[in-house]
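Final report, closing paragraph on structural work. Over the funding period we assembled a curated collection of sequence-structure pairs, and we close with a single example.
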Amino acid sequence: MTDVEAKESVRAQWTAHPCGTGDFLEGVEPESLAYFDRIRDQRYLMTDTWMPELIDFSAAKGKDLLEIGYGIGTDLVRWAEGGARVHGIDATPQHHRLASLNFELHGIDADLRVGDAAAIDYPDATFDMVYSNGVLHHTPETVRCIGEIWRVLKPGGRLLFTVYHRHSLYHWLNLVLYRGYLKGERKRLGWDGLLSTIEYGADGINLKPLVKLYTRQQLRWLLEDFSHCKIRTAHLTVDQLPGGRFLPKFLGPMLAGRFGWYLVADARK
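Its predicted structure, as stored:
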């Protein structure tokens, strides 16, 4: 897959299935305030409860924050409610349309643009903080994106982002062992195809977004020019594991700090 094809695969995925949407929206009026609020509640109260625990959405109060890959704007609205002056770039026009509507319905101002994180359309040293959640592992140019983030951050500026964790239990037990080998999906879809099905609606054939996994060491290498780099691991529920319904629920939070699905990086320029 070429870089151009990889980027197009990502746009195709989130045009067909905008970030955060799913079957739980059945019965809700599409693109209404209730629609966006249902997605928000699903995210913070159901699927990603780790986020409010680890991410302080008021940390950029009174500051300029850029989100890379804002999706339909769920997190960026939260940052704005926390007092940040919010800006965002996203590669998918459908996301731009929905996020703009989300902000309009909530009565919040934002500077939202369609753009590529490998060529950020802002001047040097513009932002106090750059945030990106589950995005930079979908681009073939992650290293270039990190360089662009460095450029647009002010001296002392903060970078907070997440990527998928290679050494997570979800990866090794669910994807590799159970689905990949026991169910034969790796043979049918190939490894890239199987990884792509992590994303809602992707089948690994017709919709096959680029997905990459990182280790802590690889992430530290990406951030070698930054200082005060802290990497944490988050997000593990027993439902993500084979036979999870038979496991005690408390195991998820106990193991998330070492074997969670996300690596959360926090660094300073």
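The chain is about 40% helix and 20% strand. The CA atoms of residues 162 and 264 lie 5 Å apart. We thank the funder for supporting this effort.
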